[in-house]
Every structure is written in structure tokens, then in C-alpha cells.
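Usage

Read records sequentially. Each one opens with the input sequence:
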Amino acid sequence: MSLLPVEPLTLLAFAPAALALNLTPGADMMFCLGQGLKGGPRAGMAANLGIAAGGMVQVLLAGLGLGALIAAHPMAFESIRWAGVAYLLWLAVKSLRATRPQAAQVRAMAMGRVFREALLVNILNPKVILFILAFLPQFVDPARPVLPQFLALGAVFCLGGLMVNGLVGGFAGTIGGRLARSQALARWLSRATAAIFATLALRLAMMQRG
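and closes with the structure output:
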């Protein structure tokens, strides 16, 4: 038996499937896009790192069995989901307030704050842990310790997300920084970012558990 948590052949099968899922536009990618537009390439990368960290937290929770608890108790799912909706709407309002002239320019943002926002957005989306529960077990060998396998597979999945979302956030940040030299375009960027966050909130609010 291999000393690695996951057999190499299993990783070879898992990696392309995980990358294909990372390339599919979703809430994480849109959040990195919005933060990149609002705060520049560094903000896009900080959001990317926060999303990846949140993903690993979700993987750990799933591996410990807490995800199954959330899946089995509708009230727990709904509480987390609506907390996520409220948080995204709050971020949208913050972005709209940035259309004021004195705050219109894209500026150096507190990267720790962006990281925390991304981390919370990911953790407050219960669909992430339900997705992990549906996807990762397909590659888990029940004859081996489950938690190390979850963590290893989750790390591969999050690494793919880091690469894809990093490119999206960096590109958006570069474009946003150039456009923000114009006061009018900076206002448009703030409104576009607010629209992205509001759309993510609506998407999360309308999601079904199944």
C-alpha cells in the first residue's frame, strides 16, 4: 500500500476533473473578478487566496463529517445560506458607496480585509460543502483513512482554483486599475462590482439544496 494519502493513479484521474470544474465560471471566480475590478491585481489575488483558504476549511469540515450534518439538517443549511446572502449584499452596498467622488479611484486596499471577505463568502456558502461531499468521495478509498484523503484531494482542487481564479482576479485588477484613471469609469467599476456581489447574493438566495 502506498504511503501517500491518495494513490497516484487516483490523483491522475482526479486532477483533470478538478481542473475542469475550476474552469467553470462560478461564484468564486465572479467574486475574484469583482474584487479585482474594485481594488486592483493585489486585491484580486488576496480574494483568490481567501477563496482557496475557505475551500480548505470546507474540505476539512466535510472530512470531519460536519458537512453531512449540514446536509441532514435544513435549518443549519438555511442559516448559513442566508448569512451568506446578507454578507454579499453588504459588500454590494459598500461597493455602491465607493461611487462617491472621494472614493472613486481604485486604491491600495487592505489585503487582509479582502482575504477575510473572500474567506467568509466561501464559508458562508453551504453549497460548497455539499458539492465537496458529492464530488470528493468518488475518489476516496474507504479502506484507507478518509480525512487525509479529503485533505489531499481538497488541496489539489484548491490549487487548481488558485491558478484559475488568480488569472481572473489579476486580469480584472489590471483592467480595473487602468479604467479607474477616469472618474466616470471608476464609478462604473464600483457599480459593476456591486452588481456582481448582488447577483451572487441572488444566486445563493435562489439555490435549492438538491
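Summary fields computed downstream for this record:
- Residues 49 and 115 are 7 Å apart (CA to CA).
- The mean pLDDT is 80.
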